[in-house]
Write a structure and sequence with these properties.
Distance between the termini: 22 Å
Number of strands: 0
Radius of gyration: 17 Å
Helix content: 55-70%
Shape: globular
Order of helices and strands: HHHHHHHHHH
């Protein structure tokens, strides 16, 4: 199973049992329509630090980032299209509920990890941007760019004491190359070749292994 398929499956499994069925169908449809690049980026940046880490050890973090992005993406679409006036209000209400569940479940998966604060900031920045758009002022953040940073933090801190600046710079350059086209396909992330090997990390001296997931080299 390749990483993109594994990310989609992990994100779907993380939703658990959701009822009623129309709501669950809406959730799964949004995940299917969303590029799994955010979750794949979690895996890519973790393996840049530790090439031996297995997907199973990263599944919750990858699913968490993927769900947060999928939910905010739905919210952004609803804000732009205003379906309550131009579409089916019942479907729009279902989409709003689906977006809330996706974001909440993703944030829950990242709670207690080193990426928790970054996830909260992505959600807050998104809210500020939507307000600025409504007020016809230029937004200060881009959702895809912020999610790239979140994924990098989630992946790198899963296997190391912090996020190397080189990885953050690489993720920033990759997101800048998108030219506002939205989230790329996973192949773009996998072909981008992040820096690998030992990388210095700005750290405050906290325990390096706190929150670290085991890799195949640990066994």
């Amino acid at each position: 199973m390749d990483d993109a398929v594994a990310v989609r499956r992990a994100a779907s499994d993380a939703l658990g049992t959701v009822e009623p069925e129309p709501l669950r169908s809406a959730l799964l449809a949004e995940l299917d329509d969303c590029s799994p690049a955010p979750g794949v980026l979690v895996v890519a940046t973790a393996r840049a630090v530790d090439g031996g880490v297995e997907f199973e050890a990263l599944a919750e973090r990858a699913a968490g980032v993927q769900l947060v992005y999928a939910g905010l993406r739905v919210t952004r679409r609803l804000a732009r299209e205003e379906p309550w006036t131009a579409g089916d209000p019942a479907t729009a209400n279902l989409d709003v509920l689906a977006a809330d569940i996706l974001v909440a479940r993703g944030a829950h998966l990242l709670a207690g990890t080193e990426a928790s604060d970054a996830a909260v900031e992505v959600i807050r920045a998104f809210g500020r941007d939507q307000t600025e758009r409504e007020e016809d002022t230029a937004p200060s953040h881009a959702l895809e760019s912020d999610v790239f940073e979140l994924a990098t933090v989630a992946g790198s801190t899963a296997v190391g004491p912090g996020t190397p600046p080189q990885l953050l710079e690489w993720a920033s350059e990759l997101s800048a190359s998108l030219d506002g086209q939205g989230m790329p396909e996973p192949s773009t992330v996998l072909a981008a070749d992040p820096p690998t090997g030992p990388m210095p990390v700005a750290d405050d001296g906290a325990a390096a292994d706190e929150g670290r997931v085991p890799s195949s080299g640990d066994r």
